[in-house]
Automatic annotation (TrEMBL), chain A:
It comes from Microcebus murinus (Gray mouse lemur). This is Protein rogdi homolog. Coiled coil: none annotated. It is found in: Cytoplasmic vesicle, Secretory vesicle, Synaptic vesicle. PANTHER family: LEUCINE ZIPPER CONTAINING TRANSCRIPTION FACTOR LZF1, PROTEIN ROGDI HOMOLOG. The gene is ROGDI.
Automatic annotation (TrEMBL), chain B:
WD repeats lie at residues 58-102, 560-601. It comes from Microcebus murinus. One of its GO terms (biological process) is protein localization to plasma membrane. PROSITE patterns: WD_REPEATS_1, WD_REPEATS_2, WD_REPEATS_REGION. Pfam families: ANAPC4_WD40, WD40, WDR72_alpha-sol. Residues 761-770 have a biased composition (Basic residues). One of its GO terms (cellular component) is cytoplasm. InterPro entries: Apc4-like_WD40_dom, WD40/YVTN_repeat-like_dom_sf, WD40_repeat_CS, WD40_rpt, WDR72-like, WDR72_alpha-sol. Residues 722-777, 1032-1055 are annotated as: Disordered. Residues 732-751, 1032-1050 have a biased composition (Polar residues). Keywords: Phosphoprotein, Repeat, WD repeat. This is WD repeat domain 72. The gene is WDR72.
Amino acid sequence: MATAMAATAAERAVLEEEFRWLLHDEVHAVLRQLQDILKEASLRFTLPGSGTEGPTKQENFILGSCGTDQVKGVLTLQGDALSQADVNLKMPRNNQLLHFAFREDKQWKLQQIQDARNHVSQAMYLLTNRDNSYQFKTGAEVLKLMDAVMLQLTRARNRLTTPATLTLPEIAASGLTRMFAPALPSDLLVNVYINLNKLCLTVYQLHALQPNSTKNFRPAGGAVLHSPGAMFEWGSQRLEVSHVHKVECVIPWLNDALVYFTVSLQLCQQLKDKISVFSSYWSYRPF
Amino acid sequence: MRPSLQAVALWGKRAPPHSITAIMITDDQQMIVTGSQEGQLCLWNLSPELKISAKELLFGHSASVTCLARARDFSKQPYVVSAAENGEMCVWNVTNGQCVEKATLPYRHAAICYYHCSFRMTGEGWLLCCGEYQDVLIIDAKTLAVVHTFTSSQSPDWVNCMCIVHSMRIQEDSLLVVSVAGELKVWDLSSSINSIQEKQDVYEKESKFLESLNCQTIRFCTYTERLLLVVFSKCWKVYDYCDFSLLLTEVSRNGQFFDGGEVIGAHRILIWTEDGHSYIYQLLNRWAQMGAAYKTFSGLSKSIYPADGRVLKETIYPHLLCSTSVQENKSHPFVMGYMNERKEPFYKVLFSGEVSGRITLWHIPDVPVSKFDGSPREIPITATWTLQDNFDKHHTMSQSIIDHFSGFIDGSVVTSSEYVPSLGKLICGCEDGTIIITQALNAAKAGLLEGGSLLKDSSPHKVLKGHHQSVTSLLYPHSLSSKLDQSWMVSGDRDSCVIWWNIFTEEILHKFFLEAGPVTSLLMSPEKFRLRGDQIICCVCSDHSVGLLHLEGKRCLLRARKHLFPVRMIKWHPVENFLIVGCADDSVYIWEIETGTLERHETGERARIILNCCDDSLLLKPESVLPVASETHKHKSIEQRSSSSYQLGPIPCPGLQVDLSRPFNVFATKWSHVGFHILLFDLENLVELLLPTPLSDGDSSSSFYGSEILRRAKSTVEKKTMTLKKNKTLSAEATSKPASESLAQGDSANKFSEENDGIKRQKKMKSSKKMHPEPSRRVDANLTIDTAKLFLSCLLPWGVDKELDHLCIKHLNILKLQGPVSLGLASNEDHFSLMLPGWDLCNTETKRDDSRVNLFSGKVLELSNKYIATLSNQLAIPRGLENKCNSLQDRLFLVNKLVTLMSFKSFLSNSSFKMESVHNKVKSPGSDILNMSSFYGYLRNGKNGSHVPEADLSLLKLISCWRDQSVQVTEAIQAVLLAEVQQHMKTLRKTPINSQPVSLAENGNCEMMQNVPKMEWAEELELQCIRSTLPPQTPVSPVNHDSNSNSANFQDAEDMPDRCVLEESESPGEPRHHLWLAKVCPCKVC
């Protein structure tokens, strides 16, 4: 043990020097890299107020599924809002074609994108005043900063990867159903959400359950995608989902953003690990 | 935590980390409340001289606290609401540290404003919340349920900050918010109360884009009712409230980031920055200044001066008057606030809290002025304080549980500890690598009590030396699986060395070297998972690797080193021999244990499914060292907001998942590098264990009753005890019925369901965690007595009456405290508070008196006097000796229960009729005693209320009246204890005069008879007989060896003249009485 102590005495100076370098140089290098990545990510979300103002550009996405072509949708995304939507639905029974679109004056905010964007900008805000001129004094400080940034980034990512699980009455009550110009027929429900890098549109066809029906009524719980046969009560009526159509389309910039989140999270964790290595040498002092 | 649990904290030398994330001063300027990243709230006492001292720590949140706000009209109810990162919200009563209401909503709040409009609103008002969700949420301040939202029609977004504008001029309250995108929105508040209550959509009245991002604060100038101050991170602006026209923009210089601001007077504002600086500006009107000179030669002034705001716009500019700063800045983000009170003796106070846990106060002068030469004046710091300061100042109170071993371990700090309930032993791993194994109760006694030095030498402990670095984790396998050897213990250190010990022989069985950084946790494979018949140990190291150790084989089975993120979850798949590792980034690694190969790596949805589907296999989740560290993980579920299936299970507080079947428990907590211990006394259990053995009082020195006999006696009476006990409490409880019958009924029923819930949860936890096989109910009688004694020592107010102290030490055979104890108080199963060292200085009403130790508040004396008065008025018979300990405990228990009911009052709305039916259903054997008793009491009361003893009736009236006077549980307990002890001692002093021990016993029996209801059974009488046949035992301190001769014991008392007894019945509480007493009384005792 004595020899071990003697060795550490000499090593200690080196370690401290190394740690100083880590705090003064390496941390800033990583932070700069992190900032660059996050800036790229936030550009994907076209943050308002940053850079050139003006109407954010519109992107059209044609949603379809590889199987049937019963539902086709053209959704126009403007930043975090759906500005236009055209949905064509071929009724399975009579092949009648239904068409409905958004009202001109209305937009539908995609809450998931807005939240993800806000989380990214919060993460960026945490990093803004930590440039080269800022001197980190303790490793704990860096760890805390990294924790805060990682928290925001994890949330941003989770917002995109975990769509809300809604119950059917919640979907029916949502403002989205009121967005369409010829109002949606009462036997249709529509839901739009983000799942990972995809914009998804689900159309539920409903039919009323007869009050004297022998079917065992059991309201369905919350789900991202309800399956045919799910039942719910809306108003005084009991309804059942008869058909479910799901169409989706990859949003390329969301894919980029997700990759950036993953990379920056790893970067943060690596920096944390580097700092923690020294915790074994500094005893209790928050290294 | 059960309500009957009493906790005493043994803090170490080092204060627990408290990284302040939110800070506020209460409206009465007597308390600072801070919220921390660790999830605790801290209450700091603020003296009239602006001195800060930490008072208590509130536990309840499992994630970082995001904001604090008052939750009621503070003059009526001192309630504060706190919100955490994971959506938890709590309403706390900050005077007694109790959690009043709690809820978990899928929202993260950034700011909360309390709003109440007395003439339009029923109920307790609203909490207007904003945060990481669209627009503004309205939450009921009382129930914490979402009432409705304020929605925006234009570009809904997250809201950064808000303020409520109450304008006298327009007679309308408005809500002003600024969104993250920089949009200012205004909602009518008072006029939309009705529509909100009817759940109609309320849209914003106005909105305006402010052209800056990262808004920090918005404030309305109540002095001029004209100006609006908006602070952004890089600039601050002043707007005209009438038309939201921009009057002034001040951009930050030299890279400072603004954090907030406040209007402190007409045209005077205070702005503070993220790094702890603040600046006071005078907003000057250029024209008004030169107006006088201007007017003389120009007739223009009249035309220029119309108040249409346009002129203001051109003329306003800031002039820096004063500034404040902190020395060690730049390193931490600060949270600051300003308290503006114009009433004397209140101060204008600027306050800040740092991540390091430091609080700083500045007293802002009423009229801040610059220096004569016009340069800004620096306002000095008025006070600054940290938790550590409290610990340093009151080091006698911050005793750690093993401090008394410091003779040979200098300044060593406990870095990890484990309590082994089956052995009653505490294993502490220290910073220097030693491991100390000690009898927990003895260690606690030595740490807390005076004269512990005797104990220090006698308390047996073992020191294991093997680690060279600080011990970071401990595991006692036997407590997880009873099949494993009792002598085994595994410890891991910072150098990733894991040692397998035999703690009985103190030898090292094997050393494993993992070379993977500090061992963060040691886990045990579940019982059903076996590798060739043996369970295996799993080590999680700080380089995110997982090692599997086979103890008997003395080898390392698997080194899983691929994980990029910290390990959050370990699961075992017994069938296929898989180890499933869940990481912080929600990815999952599946390792094959036999071959050590990585079988699969999954992320995202699939990872979630894998983790969920092996729920049936046993889950062992490493407790994170810092609650925040695991926070990211917990958030997974919160993301699914607005879903009805959303559920974030209550995350139990650290320290509450303890084996509850023993009267004494130690819980060791660990935050980063600081460990402290909480002693838990289960009163209910203690009373139960004590009841059948009143004789055991003298057990420690008794010559004719061995513990064997005791034990046998106990086991035979065990069953009867239960009923006896119930009836004792019930008879008492019943008496409180006339006073507040329906109330208590309702309360108890509600409480019962809650408790039942708690128990269920506990059980579930136990089974899922496989904590222990059902531990035996047999607890060593000595241990029980010792526990009771220690507990009494902890609760008694020492030094109030020297003579009393003396008698207590002598006759109750307890030791005096070294210093005040840090008591803990539970509000419900996962919210509790712990006093901090130095809390006793926070009682402003009592003058500091060095001789007094552990007096909870000045109120206690008052209360106990009342109690004594009631006692002596109503009860002429002196209290029995022989049931001393029990009746005390019993009474305490009762008081505890009664006052706890207070917190459940809010639930009371149902008729007592309904309650009755609930009660009738409740007949499970293990049910709450109070509940049962109130049920019986109810029955009894209906039939024959006349059996209720008069004295107890009035006592209970008194106690239930305390409940209404918001007397704190601890205060009540101490008061009753003090009174009871005084009564006992009085009888002790009287005894030699009577010199009739037999009559005493009879008296005792009388009392017992009174307490035991008429419908009592022969068993009771039997018990009575057993007791009355025994001569009353007086516990004797080891020094006095003659245990049988009463006269020797009472020698001291005999010396005393009768006068002392008289004085006793006078108010002994007043300090001046004592001064007077000391002068007058010839004896040296008092």
